[in-house]
Amino acid sequence: MEKVRLNNGMEMPCIGLGVFQVDGNTCEKAVSNALALGYRHIDSAHHYFNEAAVGKAVRESSAARSEIWVTSKIWPNEYEDETAVDRMLDRFGLDYLDLVILHQQVGSYLAGYHNLEKAYEAGKIRAIGLSNFESERLEDVLSHAEVKPQILQVECHPYFQQWDLQKRIAPYGMKMECWYPLGHGDAGLLNEPVLVSIAEKYHKSTAQIILKWHVIEGRIPLPKSTNPVHQKENIDLFDFTLTDGEIQQIEALDCGRRYWHMTLAQQEEKFLNIHLD
Ligand code: A2P
């Protein structure tokens, strides 16, 4: 699979498997199947409650650990805890993680970021980043960071393209990872006439057209699927490209429609009340 070069020289496979709300056995099977199909990038989180299942599938894969990119996310109640990354490694049963990011922009996020920097310097994690930091708290972290983050992970799809954020992170050489890259599988998006006509031209599905568009524009999509047919389709993107005109047609779908939204105050109220062990 093609790779994306990060601002610290690390190379990340350009598509990852998302496993949000996929638990236990289903998750282990989905990850094992994905690795057998050629995926080399899995995106988990403490708050997904499936790190152990992901770790098991990675350890039991015939692919070398060094070939697989494993990401996880720290929940806010652990931001001040210097042992959070060690305990995360224990849950995965792995010696290091490729990327660890702060899951939400609430709580003691500067302390959380500092703890990530320490784990990075100690070689326990190969890259660090942020997820869902869309307020001025993004610049707050950037202005205090000794190690600039490599990644910002946010909702991003043709209906919500995040160009403002893409411009804000570009000067730091940060890359954007996309959750809900397929608009959460929304049939309205997957049946958009513009996408259908481009898909017909290349004998691909509209999901493949959307994923290819993300990859061409330098973002890293994290499509979620437990369906082996969809999983296979979602990495079968490397035998075609899109024209500039087609890319512009997809960019014209941007309409500010997001599938998940909470104000900062709502995020604080909700997320600070969730305590993970
Ligand atoms: P499934 O698990 O049955 O494949 P997103 O990554 O944007 O959150 O989208 C995930 C949703 O889209 C899931 O419901 C997933 O269902 C569906 N999905 C994933 N890949 C495809 C695909 N290639 N074609 C159609 N639907 C897909």
Automatic annotation (TrEMBL):
Residues 22-253 form the NADP-dependent oxidoreductase domain. Keywords: NADP, Oxidoreductase. One of its GO terms (molecular function) is oxidoreductase activity, acting on the CH-OH group of donors, NAD or NADP as acceptor. InterPro entries: AKR, Aldo/ket_reductase_CS, NAD(P)_OxRdtase_dom_sf, NADP_OxRdtase_dom. The active site is at Y48. Pfam families: Aldo_ket_red. The keyword Oxidoreductase applies. The record marks K73 as: Lowers pKa of active site Tyr. The keyword Zinc does not apply. Substrate binds at H103. Belongs to the aldo/keto reductase family. This is Aldo/keto reductase. It comes from Grylomicrobium aquisgranensis.
